[in-house]
Design a protein that fits this description.
alpha/beta; 46% helix; 175 residues; Rossmann fold; 7 helices
Amino acid sequence: MDAMFQDLMSGVDAVIKKGVVDEKNLFVTGESYGGYLTACIIGKTNRFIAAVASRPVIDWYSMALYSDIPIYGIRFFDDFPWRVPNKYLNRSPLSLIDNITSPTMIITAEQDYRCPPAESEQFYTAIKLNMVDAALVRVPNASHEITAKPSNLIAEVAAVLTWFEKYMIENELNE
């Protein structure tokens, strides 16, 4: 997780250095594995003023036991979660909750068996318990592929933009 985080942040730093991005108005978002990365990123830095994690993996232990692809986590960690629970926890964004300060929207699909809604729900609850602004969006009648239905794609994009606009700092770069 640390090497991947450093790699992603070096990309952010390179874009900032080019002068095309306002470093005071950084936002982060991702879906599925990108949602997992988003959750990890905001657990490791407060550089992003808001985040949206869509259909993320939050707890690898629970994910390995109730996702429609349980073997994925087990292969990733080389053992069952009950045998090496700390290995699973240490790679889970759930272990980073106390570090999160970025207001975070979490999006889940009600019929998502890949990244079940409970992943998003526990992330939302943990963030709220730490008194950080959070929103949970549940998309009805949708699977992991929320955006397969055009109206869901439009609604998801609108929700993300609305969330980010809520936290955008007005300055000369975004006028």
